[in-house]
Predict the structure of diguanylate cyclase.
Amino acid sequence: MSENHLEMTLIEALNKSEDAVAIVSQQNVITFCNDTMATLLGKHNKSLIGNTIEALFSSAQGSVFEDRIDGDELADWFLSLKGNQDLGATELEIDTLTGVFFSVKCLPLSSHAYLIYGKDITAIKVLESERAHLQNELDFVSQIDPMTRVASRRQLSEKLDGQIKLYERYRVPFSLIITDIEHFRTINEQYGYAAGDRVLVEFSSLLNGMLRETDIIARINGTEFALLLPNTALEGASLLATRAKNLIVQQAFEVACDKNIALTSSFGVVEFCGLQSSVEAMIHRAEEALSEAKRQGRGSVVAMEQ
Ligand SMILES: Nc1nc2c(ncn2[C@@H]2O[C@H](COP(=O)(O)OP(=O)(O)OP(=O)(O)O)[C@@H](O)[C@H]2O)c(=O)[nH]1
């Protein structure tokens, strides 16, 4: 194959490549540019070859890129290339406005020119974005109790942890209430599990309606709910628990057509005192207070001093 023929064949092969390829001289003149690179830049390759990088980018705001890619980003990248000792490691991700992503690299050639080539990484980017989307959904799901739509135990733990840190820094008081619906088993047995589910939803929504915007209600077990009350000392939390207990007792919960029932629930109340240094220790103390309330009889409130 003659040299000329070989060159033509190489150019044809490069033009068929899905990778974007360009060669830039030491004086920053584009000496070769394949079709994919031209498409990436939004131009015909004939109009790119012979241009200096500077000339190309001086009009980056104008017609050269036809708003297809971020010219400023590319310009900064190219201009930082000269004097860079480790060009192989210099990589730029270009997010084109047509939704195609390219990863562009620059390699020095023995003739002192630079090879610039870009790979289409759209498929990887799409996968990454789908994964991030799924992760977001997963995070959301793990933060919310699917049935009652109040916070999950996991979210409660995270918020409690935040409150403990606030307390340690600013000594801001906060309290935790845990409540459990009593004799719930009989509701399921008499009216069915679906009726039990509706009661749980209504119960949580009643409690939720009593809270401040900064408070959090979480479902931490089947019929057990926690109320996290930032900036609230034991006295205020006990008052709220008593009000909640009375509200629940007065409420008629619908379990079947034309059939309402009354509920009772007991409440354990604790204020963070700095001694229960962990989230689990605080939940444990509130559960101890709840057990004590249950021992005292249906619909009791026990506030546990330190
Ligand atoms: N319908 C329904 N029932 C549930 C759900 N989660 C837990 N339960 C039921 O709630 C009952 C709770 O059990 P316990 O708290 O031990 O029983 P209890 O009858 O309320 O007893 P006390 O709390 O001691 O008064 C069990 O029968 C569970 O099957 C749920 O999501 N939906």
Remarks:
- The first strand starts at residue 20 and ends at 24.
- Residues 147, 180-185, 188, 193, 196-197, 200, 222-223 surround guanosine-5'-triphosphate (CB under 6 Å).
- The two ends are 92 Å apart (CA to CA).
- The chain has two domains: 3-125, 144-304.
